[in-house]
Design brief:
alpha+beta; Nuclear Transport Factor 2, Chain: A; Archaeosine Trna-guanine Transglycosylase, Chain: A, domain 4; 2 domains; six-stranded mixed beta sheet; five-stranded antiparallel beta sheet; globular
Length: 171
């Protein structure tokens, strides 16, 4: 058994104007909101590896656990996709009501939080509008726990990211 420690190499910076515009468009198209209400004027990023970046509106030079669990966490880049953060969608839902979501049974929630996809039989309800990307909501407490994309060929909701992602990737 190797006693070598992994070193985490972080890359940080300011988000480009085009990426900021993509995030704004994503929020507008998915939830029909005015993105300027939810997005700070300057966005920063921290990439943990080529497959996981956090986008946040913070004066901090680096992301930390406080940023992840406060409203300053804006989006995630994972699996070559830009996806809203759980926190920003919770804020939108608080203001506008639930949209573009699937409500999932307990068994499906457990599997999803371990990084698995969601089977059709685990979905209690699909909340319109039906888009390619869905917020995943735990039916037990109505909390957003991640995001999934519908795959019509496989007839499942593919896990894009879930609240357990950070523990699996960074833990």
């Amino acid at each position: 058994m190797s006693s070598e420690k992994k070193t985490l190499k972080l890359k940080t910076g300011t988000v480009s104007k085009s990426t900021s515009e993509k995030i704004a468009k994503l929020l507008s198209e998915l939830y029909g909101v005015n993105p300027s209400r939810y997005l700070p004027s300057v966005l920063n990023y921290t990439c943990f590896n080529e497959n996981l970046c956090i986008i946040y509106g913070s004066k901090l030079g680096l992301v930390n656990l406080k940023v992840l669990y406060e409203n300053s966490w804006i989006a995630v880049y994972t699996k070559k996709r830009l996806v809203p953060s759980i926190n920003i969608v919770r804020s939108i839902y608080s203001d506008q009501g639930v949209k573009a979501a699937i409500i999932v049974k307990e068994q499906g929630v457990k599997a999803f939080l371990y990084g698995n996809d969601i089977l059709l039989e685990s979905v209690l309800q699909v909340v319109p509008p039906v888009k390619k990307l869905f917020a995943v909501i735990d039916s037990a407490d109505n909390e957003v726990i991640g995001f999934a994309a519908w795959n019509p060929r496989r007839r499942i909701y593919e896990n894009i990211y879930d609240a357990g992602l950070f523990l699996r990737e960074l833990g």
